[in-house]
Amino acid sequence: MADLRPILLVEDNPRDLELTLAALAKCQLANEIVVARDGAEALDYLYARGAHENRVPGDPAVVLLDLKLPKVDGLEVLEKVKSDPMQRQIPVVMLTSSREERDLLRSYELGVNAFVVKPVDFNAFFEAIQDLGMFWAILNEPPPGARSNGI
Amino acid sequence: MSALPYRAALEACAAEPIRIPGAIQPHGALLCFDPQTLALRQMSRNAAAMLGVELAPGPLPAGLSGLQAPLRAWLESGDVVFLKVLEVAGRRWQLQGHLTPQGALLEFEPPPQPDEEALESLYPRLSAFMADLSASADLAGVARAAVREIRALTQFNRVLLYSFDETGDGTVLAEANDGVLPSYQGLRFPASDIPEQARALYRLSRIRLIPAVDYTPCPIEPVNSPVDQAPLDLSRAGLRSVSPVHLEYMRNMGTGASMSVSILVNGALWGLISAHNAAPRMVNPQIRNACDILGQVLSMHIETRLQAGLAAERLALSAVEQSLLAGLAEAPSLQAGLAAHAAELLAMLRAQGAATIIQGKVWITGQTPDEAAIKAFAADLQAAGEEQFETDSLAQRWPQAAGFGAQASGMLAISTSQVHADYVFWFRPELVRTVEWSGNPVKAAEPVSGRLHPRKSFEMWKERVELRSAPWRPAEIETAISFRNAIQTLVLRRAEERAELTDMLERSNRELEAFSYSISHDLRAPFRHIVGFAELLSDRERSLDERSRHYVTTIKDAAVSAGRLVDDLLAFSQLGRSQLHKTRVDMAKLVQEARRLLEPELGGRLVQWRVEPLPDGWGDATMLRQVWQNLLQNAIKYTRGREMTRISVGGTAQGGKIRYWVEDNGVGFEMAYAGKLFGVFQRLHRIEEFEGTGIGLALVKRIVERHGGTVEAHGEPGKGARFSFVLPEAGHDKRKTISG
User: Fold this and answer.
1) Which residue of A126, B377, B594, B713 is 20 to 30 Å from A41, comparing CA positions?
2) Distance from CA of A48 to the nearest CA of B (A)
3) pLDDT tens digits along B465-484
4) Which residues of chain A lie closer than 8 angstroms to B522, CB-CB?
5) CB contact under 8 A, B531 and A122
6) CB-closest option in B524, B574, B578 to A120
C-alpha cells in the first residue's frame, strides 16, 4: 500500500538538489516532491504558513533534510519538528556532507529517523536515495492514530 | 628549683619607684638649690655634718657662700652639668651638678687623693684603648679590650660586658677576672632580670657606682620638693640610693661593691659593663669619668661596627639571594631550582633546614619537621592569609611542634603563590641546645641560697628559651621578603607564559577544527557533483564513442579518488581530536575482523597466513582495528604479483610494552626511505603500480602515538617488509584515561 503523501526535500545547493531529484526520479515514485530551499521555508511548509498557507493539508510522507542550510539550519528544523507533539511522528532523514561525529550524535539526540552521509560516488548516492525514498515513501506506515492518514 | 620566689622578687622590683628613692648613698652629700635665688630647697641628712656647715631650707646658707659665684657662673652659662673641685667651708670637694625641674642638684664627694691616678695620667691609657678597639677583628675582641681596660682602671675583681638582644635577654660577651669572684663568661639571663624602669635609668645616667653594698641609705629632707610637692627625682644623681632588691642580688653574688657603665647604641641600651668587687671599693670621680668616656668611645665604636656589619650582612645576604634567583630562573621548575640550590637556600637565612610545598608536594632539606607538619603549617598560613610569617617559637603557635623542637623551633615562611598554598620554609633548631654556660656555675664555694642569683637567672633564661630558636634578624626578614617578591614575579611570569601558550594552542586548535569541518562539508560536495553529473551524462548519452566514454570515466574516477582523499584526510585530522576510549582489547579478534573486511581486495589470490597468538592490547578498539586494517591492507597490496603471498602477524610482551608486527614477502622498500613511510602523502611507488592516497601509514603512526607507542618499518627491495608497533601495557600508560 503506497503512501502517496508528498516527500519534502530540503536542500539549498542547486547541484545537490538536481542530483537528488534525478535519483528520486529514477525510483519512479508516484509521490509529489516538494522542495524547500532553506530551513525557514521547510518550517513554513510543515506548519502550512507563509507561502505554503494554502497548501493541501496533511504531513509529508518523509522529510529529506540537508544539515547545512541558510537561515534556519537542518538541526534546528529537526529540533523543532521532534519537539512538537503534533509533528514528531513525521519521519526525518538527515542528509549531510559532514562526517563529523558531533553532527551525527546531535541528530540522534534530537530524534532523527535516519542519517545519511552523502557519498562522493554517485552510484552509492543514488542507491542511498532510492532506498530511503522507497522505504519511507512506500513501506513506511504512519503510526496508528496519527493525525492524518493519506488515504 | 622553683623560679616562683625569684619571679615575685622581680615583680616587686619592677614596681619599685627607683627614680625617687628619697635617699642617697652615704659616701657623698646632696643639696638642691633654687636655680634663680640659690635658696636651699632640700638636702641629704648627712650634708651638714659632712660639709661642716649649718644647713636649713631657705636662702643660701652662710657656710656655703663660697659656692655662690661658681654656681651663678654655671647656671648662667647654660651648661647642662657642672663638674669642679672646689673648697667649701675650708675643705676641698669634688662637686657635680645637674639641673632638674625640681632645682639644681649639687653632689659632694671627697676629691681624689694626691697619690691616686690623676686625669692626665689617664689620657695615654684611653688612647691605647682606642687603638685596641680599632685593631680588634670582631665584637668579642672589642668587648675583651673594654673589660680589660675597665678592670685596670677600677681594680675591681671582675668586669663583665654583656649585650642585650632584640628581646632584651642578656649574654655575657667578655669578662676580665682576677679569680676572686666566679666567672660568668657566656652567662645568659632573661630580660626580666633588668626591669624596664631600670633600663630607662641606665639610659639617663651612664655610670653608677655602689662602693659599699651594706650602706645605710641617707634620706633627703624634706622628703617632698617645695616646687611640686613630690619626692626629689634622682634619676641623674650619681649618689642615688639603689633598690634593696638589687642590693640583695649583689649580696647573693658575693659582691661588696659594683659599678656599671651603659653602652648606648642609637639611643637604645645595647649593653652594660658591669664591674664587681668582693670587698667594698670606692672609685673616685675622676676614674669614674674616665670610665664614662671609655664607655662613650666604646658605644660609638660598637655603633659603627654594627652599622658596617649590618650593611655587610645585607650585602652578603643579597649576593646569596641574587645567585639563588639566577639559578631558579634557569631551573625547569621552582621546586627543582630550590632543590638544586639547597645550600644557598639555607645559607641565605642561616637556617639548618628548609622545605617547600608547591601544589601539595613537599620537598625538604636539612633539619625539618616531617611532611605532615609542613603541610599543616602551609594550610594554616593559607587559611590565615599570611604571605610571610616568622617565629622563634613554633610551639607557641602550633603546640604539636614541641615534639620536634630540637630540629625546628624557629620558622620563617614566605608564600610563593597568590593562588595556591605554596610556601618556602626555613627552620632553626632550639637555641638552648646550642648554648653552654662555660663558667662553672656549680662551684662549691658559691653561695646560692638567696632568691636572686645568676644561676637562677640562667635557669630562668633556659626555661624562657625552651623551644625557642635564635631570633630572625631584621636583615634576614627583609631578605626573605625580597626573595618572596622575586619568586612571586618569577612564578607569575612562568604562569603567564604558560597561559599564553595554552591560549595560542587553543586558538589554533579551534581554527583547525573549523577548517576541517568546513572542508568536510564544502570540499566533498564539488567532487560529488562531478561524479554525479558525469554519471548522468553517460546514462543519457548512450551513443558516446569509446574514447569519449573513457574521458567521462576518467573524470568520474578522478573525482571519486579526490573525494576519498578528502575523507582520509578528515579521518586523519579527526584522530587528533577524538577522545580515546581505552579498554582491554582482544587483538586476535581485531586481526580476524580486518582480514574478513579485506577479503574482497585479495581478488581470489592465495595467501599463506601465519597468525601467532597475540597478547591483549590496551587502547581504543576502533582505532586499533584501523591500525590492523591499514597494515594488513598494505601487506596485501604490496604482495600483489607474488606467486605465493606470505603474510605473518605476531606479538610479544616485554617490560611493560607489547610489540606487534605484520610481515610480508612483497616488493619491500629501501631502508633509506623508511623514515618517509609514515609521513602524510608519502609514496614510494607510482600511482599506477599501487593505488592509494598515501595516508594509511601516517594514520597508523598517529593512532599508535596517541596511545603512547611507537612504530617501526624494516624492508628490503624485492624481499618484503615488516611493520611493527609498540604499545604500553595497561598500568604502564602515562596518559591512561581509565585507571587500571
Assistant:
1) A126
2) 30
3) 677 888 888 878 888 888 88
4) 97
5) yes
6) B524
Homologous superfamily (CATH) for B29-109 = PAS domain (3.30.450.20)
Q: Work out whether strand B268-277 and strand B158-164 pair parallel, antiparallel, or are unpaired.
A: antiparallel
- Residue A147's pLDDT band, with cuts at 50, 70 and 90, is very low
**pLDDT of A139 over the 70 cut:** no
CA of A64 vs chain B CAs: smallest distance (Å): 17
Alpha-helix runs per DSSP H in B438-473: 454-464
Residues of B with CB under 8 A from a CB of A: 517, 520-522, 524-525, 527-529, 531-536, 556, 559-560, 563-564, 566-567, 570-571, 574, 578
What's the mean pLDDT when you consider all of chain A?
81
Q: In the predicted model, what is the mean pLDDT of residues B624-630?
A: 91
What 3-state DSSP class applies to B368?
A: coil
Predicted local confidence at residue B460, as pLDDT: 66
Model confidence over B114-148: pLDDT tens digits?
665 566 777 787 888 888 888 887 888 889 999 99
Q: Taking CB atoms and an 8 Å cutoff, what residues of chain B touch A121?
A: 531, 560, 563
Rg of chain B over all Cα atoms, to the nearest angstrom: 48
Whole-model pTM: value is: 0.53
pLDDT at residue A95 in the model: 86
Contacts of B566 in chain A (CB under 8 A): 120
Q: Shortest Cα distance from B701 to chain A (angstroms)?
A: 22
How large is the average pLDDT for residues B185-199?
81
Query: Measured between alpha carbons, how far is B44 from B37 in angstroms, rounded to an integer?
Result: 20
Pairing between β-strand A7-10 and β-strand A33-36 as defined by DSSP bridges: parallel
- What's the CA gap between A104 and A94, in Å, rounded? 9
- Is there a contact between B620 and B580 (Cβ–Cβ < 8 Å)? yes
Q: What is the C-alpha separation between A21 and A9, in angstroms, rounded?
A: 9
Q: What is B4-17+115-310's CATH number, 3.30.450.40, 3.30.450.20, 3.40.50.920, 3.30.70.890?
A: 3.30.450.40
Query: What CATH number was assigned to the domain covering residues B579-728?
Result: 3.30.565.10
The complex's ipTM works out to 0.78
Cβ contact, residue pair A68, B533, below 8 Å: no
pLDDT: is B641 or B223 the higher one?
A: B223
Instruction: Over range B45-72, report the average pLDDT.
Output: 91
CATH number of A7-139: 3.40.50.2300
Q: Which residues pair with A33 in a beta bridge?
A: A7
Q: Where are the domains of chain B?
A: 4-17+115-310, 29-109, 579-728
Q: Which chain B residues are Cβ-neighbours of A120 within 8 angstroms?
A: 524, 527-528, 531, 559-560, 563-564, 566-567
- Residue of A67, A105, A120 to mutate when probing chain B, most B C-beta within 10 A: A120
Say yes or no: do domains B4-17+115-310 and B29-109 share a fold. Answer: yes
CA distance A98 to chain B (A): 5
Among B521, B563, B578, the residue with its CB nearest the CB of A98 is: B521
Q: Report whether A37 contacts A11 (CB < 8 A).
A: yes
Task: Give the pLDDT of residue B610.
Answer: 93
Q: Do B528 and A16 touch (CB under 8 A)?
A: yes
List of residues 6+ apart from B494 with CB closer than 8 A: B334
Pairing type for strands B207-210 and B257-265 reads antiparallel
